[in-house]
Structure formats: structure tokens, C-alpha cells
Design goal:
Number of domains: 2
CATH architecture of the largest domain: Alpha-Beta Barrel
Distance between the termini: 34 Å
Number of strands: 10
CATH superfamily of the largest domain: Aldolase class I
Largest sheet: 10 strands, parallel
Low-confidence stretches: none
Order of helices and strands: EHEEHEEHEHHEHEHEHEHHHHHH
Mean pLDDT: 96
CATH topology of the largest domain: TIM Barrel
Bound molecules: flavin mononucleotide
Helix content: 40-55%
Shape: globular
CATH class of the largest domain: Alpha Beta
Strand order of the largest sheet: 3-5-6-7-8-9-10-1-2-4
Strand content: 5-15%
Number of helices: 14
Length: 300
């Protein structure tokens, strides 16, 4: 089974991806956070850096775009190819109102006839790279899923990542694993399960229910436990020294790129995941003024 590290804007940058690969590995593909495409086709400095080959040396990565314009997507895929990559992903999942208001991300699921026109235009000529898609199971309601699923199955996507929530449900609302089962039953080529896989047991339960699962994508579970992919493959849990090395390397990597206060802010944001619902850890983490205090807050 393939494991994708989910793209997480503002968190899973090149420093995190490289550090994770070096210290923990066991992930097959690292998703790159989306590039918001514009008419001028100029990427932000951070987007340019994120997709640069040197940022991803030695990694298998999946660049991602957010757009509702097929020409923009085609031009961006040419750029992806020129950077040396052979695949790219279309985001139909982002639920942020600033994105959906412009009819992008999961906003594209609100108007399926327009989505079909977009996909027809996109696939009318050969694409520069293999294109996959990451989708929600509806905008308002899971009842929208069968129609969305039917439409996505009509196009030659390399794979389809299914975050088993609606856009309305954001990241913590109800979860609908049966939407993935339906994709398998309908024979959608190469579906990738995504949503709330936090432990090896969660993955085992998914495989028991859906033995045909070829691939999973994991985001927050890997932030909370960077050894999760290794554990899923039968390897050892992370030791304290390993976790200390992980947080220290991330902090030092971010310090080399940002001001120290920003690097500290980033590491604190990341460490909220391993701190979880532990109120004492969360309080100590909030008060921490340096990396050592952050590590002491979370690892004790
Ligand atoms: C802070 C944050 C940023 C995210 N950024 C992206 C993104 O750039 N592209 C994307 O497709 N999904 C993005 N997601 C969604 C995740 O990739 C993933 O689908 C979601 O967290 C559910 O998976 P999980 O339960 O394993 O975390 C983001 C999620 C969070 C919480």
C-alpha cells in the first residue's frame, strides 16, 4: 500500500518534507501545498521555492494547483514538467471561503456542469504530466458524492484522492468512510483514501473493510506522530531522542530560512499536534520561549 504525506499549506514545506524523509521515511509521495494560479501566471516566491528541484532533491513529490481555468492549469503543468516532475494534482478540496467564493477548490463541486466543461477542455489535448485530483465528497452534503464520483470516473486521472468529508464539514466535522467504499465498488481507478487516519489500527480497520485499498493519504496523523508511516509498515514507534532530533532539525531548518521568532511560531504550530488534547502540554507549549522549552513541553 502506498502512503502519501498530505499537503498542508504553511506546514509541509521543503524543510519538513526533507527532514521527515531523512529521519523517518516510509512515505512514498509527499504532496506539495497548492499553488494558487493567477491570470498573470506568476507564482509567489514561496511557491517557486517549494516546487524547485533542489528543494525536493531525493523526494518523490506531487505538485498541486488551485484553479478553475483549464488554460492556467495546462500552462502550470508545462512548468511542472520543466522542473523535472512527471505528475501533478488538481485541488477540488480546499474549503476555505476565500478560495470557494471564487469558485475554486471545493467551490468547483458546487457547479458540476461547469466542472464538466472545465474537465472536457482540460483533457481535450494531451497533458504534459499525469494529472491526479484531490476532492471532497460534496460541497453541502454527502448525497452529492455519487454524481461527483461518476463525473470524475469519466476522465483519465492518474488517481483520485478522496477526503471523505464535505466542504461544509471542513476538517473536523462528520466523516463518511462509506464514500470511499462506494468509489471502490464503482471501480473508480486508483482511489486514495484520506481523512482522520491517526494510528496503524485506523489503517488496519480501513484495510479490513476495504481490502482493495491501494493507497492512503495522511496529514495530521503524521504531524502528531512522524513515525506513523513507519509503524503502519510494521516498524518501531519514534523514540524520545528521535523526536527530539526531529523537532530540533525542523527548528534549525526554519531558522535558516526565517527569523527566529517565525521559526519558533512554526515549530509551536506543528507541536500542537503531538500535544493533542493534553491541556498541560498545550499550556506549557504556549508559554515556551525557545525550542528547548517547546520540546520539554511536549516530550516531558
Ligand atoms: C493547515 C492545513 C493546510 C492544508 N493545506 C492543503 C493543501 O495545500 N492542499 C490540499 O489538498 N489539502 C490541504 N489540506 C488538507 C489535507 O491535505 C488533508 O486532506 C486533511 O488534513 C485531511 O487529512 P488528515 O485527516 O489525514 O489530516 C490542509 C489541511 C490543513 C489542516
Amino acid at each position: 500500500m502506498k502512503i502519501f504525506f498530505a499537503p498542508m499549506e504553511g506546514i509541509t514545506d521543503g524543510i519538513l518534507r526533507q527532514t521527515h524523509h531523512r529521519l523517518f521515511g516510509s512515505v512514498d509521495v509527499y504532496g506539495l501545498p497548492f499553488h494558487k494560479l493567477t491570470r498573470s501566471m506568476s507564482l509567489l516566491t514561496r511557491e517557486k521555492r517549494d516546487i524547485a528541484p533542489e528543494e525536493n532533491e531525493g523526494l518523490s513529490v506531487l505538485p498541486q494547483a488551485l484553479t478553475r481555468d483549464p488554460q492556467q492549469l495546462t500552462a502550470w503543468m508545462d512548468h511542472v514538467k520543466s522542473c523535472g516532475y512527471s505528475r501533478a494534482d488538481l485541488n477540488l478540496g480546499c474549503p476555505s471561503p476565500t478560495v470557494t467564493r471564487r469558485g475554486r477548490g471545493s467551490g468547483m463541486l458546487r457547479d458540476l456542469p461547469a466542472l464538466r466543461v472545465f474537465l472536457d477542455r482540460l483533457f481535450s489535448d494531451p497533458l504534459a504530466v499525469a494529472l491526479s485530483v484531490k476532492t471532497r465528497i460534496g460541497y453541502e452534503s454527502p448525497e452529492e458524492w455519487p454524481e461527483i464520483l461518476g463525473m470524475l470516473a469519466d476522465y483519465p486521472f492518474a488517481h483520485v484522492t478522496i477526503h471523505v468529508r464535505t466542504a461544509r464539514e471542513q476538517y473536523t466535522g462528520g466523516i463518511h468512510p462509506e464514500a470511499f467504499d462506494l468509489a471502490l465498488r464503482r471501480g473508480l481507478p486508483h482511489p486514495v483514501y484520506n481523512g482522520d487516519l491517526r494510528t496503524p489500527e485506523d489503517v488496519r480497520a480501513l484495510l479490513a473493510r476495504c481490502p482493495g485499498t491501494e493507497a492512503v493519504m495522511i496529514g495530521r496523523g503524521l504531524l502528531a506522530d512522524p513515525a506513523l508511516a513507519r509503524r503502519i509498515r510494521g516498524g518501531a514507534p519514534a523514540g524520545t531522542e528521535e523526536l527530539r532530533a526531529w523537532y530540533t532539525a525542523l527548528y534549525e531548518g526554519w531558522c535558516g530560512r526565517f527569523q527566529a521568532t517565525i521559526a519558533l511560531g512554526r515549530i509551536k504550530k506543528l507541536m500542537e499536534w503531538p500535544a493533542g488534547n493534553d491541556i498541560k502540554k498545550a499550556r506549557l507549549l504556549r508559554r515556551a520561549g525557545d525550542i528547548e522549552s517547546c520540546i520539554a513541553a511536549v516530550l516531558g
